[in-house]
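Quick bug: 2-C-methyl-D-erythritol 4-phosphate cytidylyltransferase output formatted oddly.
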Amino acid sequence: MASISKFIAIIPAAGVGKRMQANCPKQYLCINNQTILTHTVTKLLTHPLISQVVIVLGANDEYFAQSPLAHHPDIIRVTGGTERVNSVLNGLKAVNAEQYPWVLVHDAARPCVSHQDIDNLIAQCLANNHGGILATPVRDTMKRGVFVKDAKSNVSKSINLIDNTVEREQLWHALTPQLYKTNELRFAIEQALANGVAITDEASAIEQANLPSLLVSASSENIKITHPNDLALAEFYLAKQAEQLNKSTAPK
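Here's what came back:
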């Protein structure tokens, strides 16, 4: 995979995950007695090319100190910002770009990413000498909705109706990790923030800077845990991946 032998990953983990309806931030919910964050960090640090992880935490995070990750020698802790993009920028400021010219950014709530997909992302980005993201093509029919007043209701409310069907060809679900040159990503984010541009992920900052970005097809198992039902699905995928790993490493 070219001449670069080590990478660093940033995990923005300063959010609270309100949609999980839990009594703690979702990254601290447990699957098989380990937090989601621990599963995610372990998946990254066990990859042979990832040597360090920067975890960006909320200023008032009271859970990380109790985690086994707190004293890990390959983990750097950074305080997050008001939005995800600010947290990623704070993480980038903690990265030595000479030591790590490329940086991965990965969601804390994506513990099911595979090493194979990370391998593919790194290989394709290095081969093309520019960054990219893991993604999955849209398979379902896509509809654009529109809110309208419900004339039949006695209570003033709006309902969501179909406005039109969106052509799904060349539509992709953006996943993480997203891999970019460290200095380019930092410049793109700083430029976007200075211009008041809304940034939803690293790729959107790169787009605003008019830099190229690859779409690298990945497994649909790389889900983001957002709703309570996602926990069971993530547990299933993690168990499946562990079984596959055990089979591949078992003596023959």
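Actually, after a second look the formatting is fine. The mean pLDDT is 91. Closing.
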